[in-house]
Input
Amino acid sequence: MTAPGPVAAFKRHIQTRWIAPLIPMVARGSMRRGLAGVWWKGDERPWLPDGPVLLIANHHSWWDLYLVWWFTHRLERPMVGLMNPERLASFPFFAHHGAVPADQPRPFVRGVRAGATGIVFPQAGLQAPGPVVLSPAQAERTERLVRLTQAAVVPLAIRVLLRGGQHPEAYLWAGPPFQQSNAALERLNAMLSSFEQSAADVDPEQPLPGFDAAFQGRQPIHKTAGRLSRWWR
Output
């Protein structure tokens, strides 16, 4: 293998030394500015079991990658995730935060076996909200990752909803561990259906019931204006 040229080496140095460390700050700042807040819950305690873990998640919004990264870091778990190779080539600094090319899964498998939480979006791309339905090839690929990593499979339902507030609300729901991906997917779809039912039944200006507030994001303008008006009185 030939050594990288000076320009490529310089770019790699900039990505590693300067850009990669900024990613967590950018992610947190974006979430606080763009979301009303984040709410979460788990079906079991602890939310993630000991040993190798694969999170099987839906991918229905732009925010999902930030939210999964934030979720694992809040639980103090290192993360490794499969990422579209072309997207990773455009943003190579994500490799310093656990991103692995989806067409080269061996580092992903090694990372999960070593204790990192593996992130899998089995549909392999952004999809319209609804149940996660896999093709035979996608189902086989997902189950193969489970076999190779020997990991417990935890469904993670993610929904970003614009309801009665000015800014969207993000919800994360960790289900119980399973031994097979098809059982985890069945549970994931039940959780996603529950999101839709709750959103239809609950006061749109109130958070969905059963979730704990993880952090507060951007406040609606009427609350900010209300504080200013009280100050002028």
Observations:
- The beta strands are 37-42, 53-57, 79-83, 99-101, 117-120, 152-161, 169-174, 212-216.
